[in-house]
Amino acid sequence: MRYPITIKPFGAHSILVEWPNNVADTILEDILQFNTFLETKLEGQWEFVPSYNSLALIQDSVISDFKILNNQLLEFYRELDYTKRTERHLWKLPVCYDLEFGLDLEEVSKKLNMSISDLISNHSSNEYTVYGIGFLPGFMYLGGLPQSLEIARKETPRLKVAKGAVGLAGKQTGIYPQESPGGWNIIGSCPIPIFNVNSEKPCFVSVGDKIKFEAISRAEYELHKIEGEVGIYQPNKTILDA
């Protein structure tokens, strides 16, 4: 289906296309399809940044005539062919929920009034949609968190959150791709690198993909960490809607 979109300048070099302000897979799919369509239609060098309910279009040169580009984008959206779906993937990523890694696991389980084992089971049995990648290179904003796991960010953020830390905040979950300050509630750790600047595609996950976490033991964590460091770990990937 087509949505009422709005287009506005987003600085001298960018344009922002916005969809209705709802978090929904159907809107995200529409954004991704339009993104793919524009890659074949727009002239010049453009960078596309899809996220939640918007698509940012960025180029090196200053956009000189917004009105012409605005009309062009609206026409392209009317031409969008919905028979060509964007290929998306489901990634299964390992997470160790050991208390050494899950710094907030006990506190979160008490606040949510559930056992640690139930918390882990709920978190690892769900599939999450990648609605955006940002904040840090490779940081995935994962939507679709069960309501039973929704919890506010920590009142006092940590100055250092370890690389690979898996956290909860509001209606989202995510993985810290590198050490960083952060205020998410940490419940585990993913041993494999999410972002590698030396790879052809630094972040192997794309917006629109889905993530499912697999609970692993401490021994499995150590093994996968070594495999990730030497570059031989291959995340389990399946094509969605195949």
From TrEMBL:
Enzyme class: hydrolase
Record Gene3D superfamilies: 3.30.1360.40, Cyclophilin-like
InterPro entries noted in UniProt: CT_C_D, Cyclophilin-like_dom_sf, PxpB
UniProt key word Hydrolase: yes
Gene Ontology MF terms in the entry: 5-oxoprolinase (ATP-hydrolyzing) activity
Any Pfam family the entry gives: CT_C_D
Residues spanning the signal sequence: none
All copies of domain Carboxyltransferase, residue ranges: 5-205
SUPFAM superfamilies associated with the record: Cyclophilin-like, PH0987 N-terminal domain-like
The entry's keywords: ATP-binding, Hydrolase, Nucleotide-binding
This enzyme's EC code(s): 3.5.2.9
PANTHER family (alphabetical): 5-OXOPROLINASE SUBUNIT B
UniProt name for this protein: 5-oxoprolinase subunit PxpB
Source organism of the structure: Croceitalea rosinachiae
Taxonomic lineage of the native organism: Bacteria, Pseudomonadati, Bacteroidota, Flavobacteriia, Flavobacteriales
